[in-house]
Structures are given as structure tokens and as C-alpha cells.
Design a protein that fits this description.
alpha/beta; five-stranded parallel β-sheet; two-stranded antiparallel sheet; about 35% helix; about 20% strand; binds flavin mononucleotide
């Protein structure tokens, strides 16, 4: 079994990093033999879409005759996803949505004719479904009665991942990090980890 483990926070000992590490640990408990592929977009950020990539993606005709090297990075990142049995992403909420380093990954992943089909009814995913766990850290609160901001992060990620076929997505979060001391942070992280869906985990054992 292969785990693709992605982190996005620029802070070394961040809440989302600790949460994603906790999720990976839980997976290793049931699949100790699993290998881990690592992407740290804070340490090694992906480039934004290059002119060649953007030109190639601009129409079905250009996609059919891609510019030299234009799709190499995209292809490598898609193959990483295809090789993964489970994907774990740790990400902060930045300005109500994903940080740009994660968006740069998504921009390489969604490709017509490769990861989705364009249909009149919208995008149809071409990848095999596999579990995706997303550990989110947010300075404020975005769920429940105490929510003080809209959430374009979970809504956005659910839609883009489903559009390429990844429909089994669970979000776990540590919220209000601006107000957590060390002990409360551990408590909040453990509470989040306790919510991991056993039905999804059962698919990995
Ligand atoms: C550029 C930037 C934008 C942010 N935007 C939000 C936001 O919209 N909502 C929120 O709740 N917290 C926001 N925060 C706070 C982070 O989500 C919070 O510090 C979180 O703990 C960061 O994740 P980390 O602990 O994994 O580094 C923002 C932080 C930064 C640096």
C-alpha cells in the first residue's frame, strides 16, 4: 500500500502538519507495511502553470498536440496520485480557501482527457476513487454555530477532487488555532483524529 502524504504549511511545526502526520500514523497502525510518497509544497513548491502548459490546455486541438515538455510535471503528479492507495493532505485555511501552493498542485492535476472528461453535464472523473483525508488548520472557526467566516476550502476541494474521480474525501480540522495553547492544541488534534471514519479505514486494511 502506498500513502501519498502532502503538506502545505510554511510553518515547520504547524497544526496542519501535525494533523496530517497523525492521520498517516493511524493508517500505518492498520497498514504497517505501507510506503510513503512525500510532497512538501512549502519546502518544494510547484511552479505556477507555465506558458507552455497553459497554451497546451487552452483547447482540445492544442491538447491533442501538446507543446514539448508542457505536460511532464502534470503527468508526474497525476501518476503519483494514481500510484497512491490513500492520499493525506495537511493544509492551512488561507483567506477562506486553499493556500496557493496547494492550488498549484490542483492546476496540474485537473487535465481534460487525462483526469476528467468534459461533458455537457460537467466534468466526469477518470481516476479510480481512493480515500483522501484532508487535515485542515484554521486560525478562526469555519464550521458549526461558532463559525465566523465562510468556508470555500472544503467546498472547493470536494468539488475539484470529485471532478477527477476522488469522491471518498474526509475533512478533519483543528480550528481556532489562534487561541490554542499547546495542551489545547493536542486535545483538538486528538479530537479530530478520533473522527476518522472507520468505514474508510476498513477499505485500507
Ligand atoms: C495568509 C494567511 C491567510 C489566512 N487566512 C485565514 C482564514 O481565512 N481563515 C482562518 O481561519 N485562518 C486564516 N489564517 C490562519 C491560519 O489558518 C492558521 O494560522 C493555521 O493554524 C495555519 O495552519 P498551520 O498551523 O498548519 O500553519 C491565515 C493565515 C495566513 C498566513
Amino acid at each position: 500500500m502506498n500513502i501519498l502524504h502532502i503538506d502545505c504549511s510554511p510553518r515547520p511545526a504547524s497544526h496542519s502538519r501535525q494533523l496530517s502526520a497523525g492521520i498517516v500514523e493511524k493508517i500505518l497502525e492498520i497498514a504497517p507495511e505501507a510506503s510513503i510518497s512525500r510532497r512538501d509544497f512549502a519546502v518544494a513548491p510547484l511552479p505556477h502553470a507555465s506558458p507552455e502548459y497553459a497554451m497546451t490546455l487552452s483547447s482540445p486541438a492544442t491538447l491533442a498536440a501538446p507543446l514539448k515538455g508542457a505536460l511532464e510535471l502534470s503527468e508526474a503528479l497525476i501518476q503519483e496520485v494514481e500510484a497512491a492507495d490513500v492520499i493525506v493532505i495537511g493544509t492551512p485555511m488561507n483567506n477562506l480557501t486553499v493556500p496557493s501552493v496547494l492550488k498549484a498542485w490542483i492546476d496540474q492535476l485537473l487535465r481534460a482527457g487525462r483526469t476528467f472528461k468534459s461533458t455537457p453535464a460537467g466534468k466526469m472523473g477518470m481516476l479510480r476513487d481512493r480515500p483522501v483525508f484532508i487535515g485542515i488548520a484554521s486560525g478562526g472557526v469555519f464550521t458549526g454555530e461558532r463559525a465566523n467566516q465562510p468556508d470555500f476550502l472544503t467546498t472547493y476541494l470536494s468539488v475539484v477532487l470529485a471532478s477527477i474521480g476522488l469522491k471518498t474525501v474526509q475533512f478533519l480540522s483543528v480550528q481556532a488555532t489562534a487561541f490554542l495553547d499547546k495542551d489545547k492544541a493536542v486535545l483538538a488534534r486528538n479530537e479530530a483524529l478520533a473522527l476518522i471514519d472507520p468505514a474508510i479505514m476498513a477499505r485500507l486494511s
